[in-house]
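Before we proceed, please read the two lines closing this message. Report back on whether the structure tokens fit the sequence:
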Amino acid sequence: MANGRNADKRIDSGRMPGGFVALPWCVLDCSAYKKLSHPARSLLMEIARQFVRDNNGRLLASSAYLKKRGWNSTDVITRAKRELLDAGFIHETVKGHRPNKASWYAVTWRTLDRLPGYDFGAVESFARGVYDKEKSAQVIAKVRPLCGQARGG
């Protein structure tokens, strides 16, 4: 404040302290999100809540973690997780195994953070925005030349 530039800055008193979940509108508005069950939508919020700056790929959806957050049914968690994976909202970077190794996930509306410990092929198979198959198809259609047209001038 020696130069006076920050003298008039006000503290944002309209927001509660702590982090927040940033979920892009393109995720909420896509047809795949509209088709998700309520447990899958809730699980997506639980997974997205864990994201902080540089940990996309190390997000948890284990029963042990979710139990602390109020989830009681392992079957509901398993079905919701499968639904999110199939719809392309999350990507598994590490396959968990017994007795105590949890799977890791990444949300697909963010880029995958390059962290050590991923399973072989997890980085190469990650596709950003794969949940929006309609938009992906439109982009691919724009890239392909029309039949009979030659490239160049």
User: Anything to note?
Assistant: Residues 139-143 have pLDDT under 50 and may be disordered. DSSP finds six helices and two strands in the chain. The chain has one domain: 25-143.
